[in-house]
Amino acid sequence: MTDDFTSTLPRKRMAAAALLTDDRGRVLLVEPTYKPHFEAPGGSVEADESPFAAVIRELEEELGLALRPGRLLVVDWVPPRPGRTEGLMMVFDGGFLTPSQTEQIRLPADELHGWAWCTEQEAGERLSASLARRMSAAVRARAEGTVAYLENGFFVA
Q: What is the C-alpha separation between 39 and 54, in angstroms, rounded?
């Protein structure tokens, strides 16, 4: 039996998030306790977990909502930077939350300070620059029925 050469290949970190909106088109963002910027609901993909399974798990853990997202909207390759490896970030269509679903949101106090519905301008002020670009691309991909490929939040193809 031969060794599996794939075990020697580089590994990338992955994360999966959801684009959740209300009936006014505002995007739901969460405020982490451990970093200065807001984030999209979601998080790291764990070992042997698919990105789709990760976003379902993260929505349950972060918001207390059992949601099944729709299609993939964005794949964003993020380059390495000091203290962080390169990664692939994915955004799935989480759909529209009803007022009833919004009332059911429950946050883990040790992980999140709060959440907010944000316009595109407000999201741009609260998110990191690359994540603001990624979420804007997700909104556009949803509206156009496409999937966006980005690198560091910028459209490539």
A: 16
